[in-house]
Amino acid sequence: MKSWFSWVPMTLFLAVIWMLLAHTPLSTATLVFAFVASLIIVLMSRRLRPFLARPKRIWVILKLTCVVLADTFHSNVAAIKIVLGYPKIKYTPGFVSIPLTLRDPHGLAILAAIINYAPGTLWAGFPESGDYVQLHILDLPQESDWAAFIIERYEKPLKEIFE
Questions:
Q1: Does residue 120 come out as left (phi exceeding 0), alpha (psi in the -120 to 50 range) or beta?
Q2: How many independent structural domains does the chain possess?
Q3: Does residue 64 sit in the same domain as residue 115?
Q4: Which own/partner pairs from 8-15 qualify as long-range (CB within 8 Å, at least 24 positions apart)?
Q5: Residue 1 pLDDT class (50, 70, 90 cuts)
Q6: Are residues 43 and 77 located together in one domain of the fold?
Q7: Residue 53 lies in a domain
Q8: Per-residue pLDDT averaged across 101-117, rounded?
Q9: The pTM is what?
């Protein structure tokens, strides 16, 4: 049963995406092609993943999604103000190292995506030891504030989801 669950959702997802992107009328042939092509892609790509993610706590995932959307919106507004020079905003760009305790590779990949979604933040370095992440921040008034922000808002929920 586990093997079914690991490839059926992705196959359905890819088939739906194909149907949405195809500029052809909905027909049986298009449906069959979408599902067969999706199934082949998913089954061939399974070897590329050493292990599958095992996310837990759906409510934490939904809460984290809302937090990321809100933070991305606020970051967009702040970046627009900085770029347009909205009444002479003074900003101080810089690098900050944030200690990490998250070890799951899927959680780290999502953390990297979250950080890079927001304009003004960039995942700039990650050593092999995985003890910290280095970020470039467009407006960095206090390094300790950013470290606490990333750990509390993103790392803790990701640990609950993946570890």
A1: left
A2: 2
A3: yes
A4: 10/38, 10/42, 11/35, 11/38, 11/39, 11/42, 12/38, 13/38, 14/38, 14/41, 14/42
A5: very low
A6: no
A7: no
A8: 89
A9: 0.71
Q: State pLDDT tens for residues 37-85.
A: 998 888 888 777 767 777 788 899 999 999 999 999 998 888 888 778 7
Q: Please list the alpha-helical segments (H only) found in the chain.
A: 2-21, 28-45, 58-84, 105-117, 143-150, 156-162
Structure tokens at 36: 């067969």
Placement of tokens 């052809």 in the chain: 24
What sign has the CA pseudo-torsion 85, 86, 90, 96? negative
Please check whether residue 56 is in contact with residue 115, taking contact to mean a CB–CB distance below 8 angstroms.
no
Of 1, 14, 21, 17, residue with least CA distance to 43 = 14
